[in-house]
Amino acid sequence: MTGAAKRILLEAVGWILLLAGVAAMVLPGPGLLLMAAGLAVLSQQYTWAERLLDPVMLRALRAAAEGVETWPRVVMSTIGGLSLAGFGALWIIEPDAPSWWPIADKWWLVGGPWTGVTLIFSSLLALALIVYSFRRFHGKPEAVAALESKIDEADVEADEERERLRKRVEERRHHDKGER
Q1: What is the model's pLDDT at position 29?
Q2: I need a surface site. Which of 17, 23, 40, 59 has the fewest CB within 10 A?
Q3: Angle (nearest 5°) at CA 85 between 84 and 87
Q4: Given CA atoms 52, 54, 55, 60 in this order, what sign does their dihedral have?
Q5: pTM, full prediction
């Protein structure tokens, strides 16, 4: 594979993962995790993606830690993950629209089997993340505190980077005005 083809392929994969992550923020699925994966791929080509990767990844870990903070959350998170798999199976089986369905049958289980496959894939990712989070964070306040500390450090670094960029833009504007 040529360098240009590899770059185009990586860029396409990165953007697809990033957009899927954005979509999964409102749809079922691990949105922050997909966004972090997309940024990780795009960070090979773009410095802006590299700058965003750590903050997004840390917030994904924070959400994961919060999901297993208490037993009711662990149980509800697990039920949510298993429910996704159940809905995915329903989409794959494609039963006929029920009699109570108020609109045209073509709108019953839109997307067909591939929607089911993506729901099951999301379910597997969610359940794997729950297991990982449980092992890493549940009942371990020191691990959560270390994560919060990393988030605080990343926020400070991001603020400093924004300030450096703002100053650079101001300097460029002043420089451009001086040339006129």
Answers
A1: 64
A2: 23
A3: 65
A4: positive
A5: 0.69
